[in-house]
């Protein structure tokens, strides 16, 4: 049996808890297991597998840790260092967009910096080894703060998000969104298969769109929420296609 343990300070336990489902899924795929344990002021996560699956498990754990830093840790860092007087919805959407911004280059940096080994302190690695990454994030926060006054204007806000998303590697080429029973349905073709997803509200829809960063966004049949429709057009250059209903002949 091969085992390793990583840990994080209890004040940052959400870093690990946020990727708990991802850890379980990836470890199941390589016949490994994980367990969380809070001891003293630190949260520990243990990983174990049979010796023949060691390389697979270490690769899976590294992938999870990189995702944690690139998404969860970055969001936490941005939120602590970017205090803006904006409506909550606008602020949260901005934060999610900043997290997605330049993610491919940040993944490359993290792949070089993260070495998975027994006893790895995730907060220690962040504090002492990821200076370049934190420096980039802090510059983004400073630049956004400097221009914070302009973010109250819809056109300027949409233009900024459009610029940030243009630097996100798209996960899908053509994405269609339509209203469906009070929810929003997203359909399209990913590299890994077809996408067919229903989301419950505007914020969730925007987070999905930011993450997917489609090259082309189609609004199928129009959106009744005019503010949302304007935002989709302003940020994603969305185009509306009106469905033609077939009329039965009498």
Explain this structure to me?
Residues 245-250 have low confidence and may be disordered. The protein has helices at residues 13-17, 20-29, 54-81, 88-100, 103-113, 122-129, 131-146, 154-166, 202-212, 226-236, and strands spanning 2-9, 32-39, 42-49, 120-121, 172-180, 183-190, 193-199, 216-220, 239-241. A hairpin with a 2-residue loop joins strand 2 and strand 3 (42-49). The chain is globular, with a radius of gyration of 21 Å. The termini are far apart. It has 250 residues and is an alpha/beta fold.
Write the layout of secondary structure elements.
Layout: E1 2-9, H1 13-17, H2 20-29, E2 32-39, E3 42-49, H3 54-81, H4 88-100, H5 103-113, E4 120-121, H6 122-129, H7 131-146, H8 154-166, E5 172-180, E6 183-190, E7 193-199, H9 202-212, E8 216-220, H10 226-236, E9 239-241
Parallel strand pairs: 1-4, 5-8, 8-9
Antiparallel strand pairs: 1-3, 2-3, 5-6, 6-7
Helix pairs in contact: 2-3, 3-4, 3-5, 3-7, 4-9, 8-10
What features would you highlight for this structure?
23% strand; four-stranded mixed beta sheet; globular; alpha/beta; 10 helices; disordered C terminus; 250 residues
């Amino acid at each position: 049996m091969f085992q390793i343990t990583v840990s994080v300070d209890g004040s940052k336990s959400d870093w690990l808890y946020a990727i708990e489902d991802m850890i379980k899924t990836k470890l199941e795929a390589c016949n490994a297991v994980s367990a969380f344990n809070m001891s003293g002021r630190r949260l520990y996560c243990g990983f174990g597998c049979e010796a023949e699956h060691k390389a697979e498990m270490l690769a899976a754990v590294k992938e999870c840790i990189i995702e944690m830093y690139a998404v969860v840790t970055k969001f936490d860092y941005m939120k602590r260092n970017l205090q803006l007087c904006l409506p909550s919805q606008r602020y949260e959407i901005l934060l999610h967009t900043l997290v997605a911004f330049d993610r491919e280059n940040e993944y490359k940096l993290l792949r070089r910096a993260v070495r998975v080994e027994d006893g790895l302190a995730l907060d220690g690695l962040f504090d002492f080894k990821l200076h370049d990454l934190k420096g980039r994030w802090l510059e983004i926060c400073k630049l956004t703060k400097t221009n914070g006054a302009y973010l109250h204007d819809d056109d300027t806000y949409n233009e900024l998000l459009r610029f940030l998303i243009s630097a996100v590697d798209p996960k899908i080429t053509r994405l269609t969104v339509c209203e469906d029973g009070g929810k929003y349905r997203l359909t399209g073709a990913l590299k890994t298969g077809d996408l067919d997803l229903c989301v419950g509200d505007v914020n969730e829809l925007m987070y999905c769109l930011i993450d997917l960063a489609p090259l082309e966004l189609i609004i199928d049949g129009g959106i009744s929420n005019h503010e949302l429709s304007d935002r989709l057009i302003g940020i994603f250059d969305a185009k509306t296609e009106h469905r033609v209903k077939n009329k039965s002949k009498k």
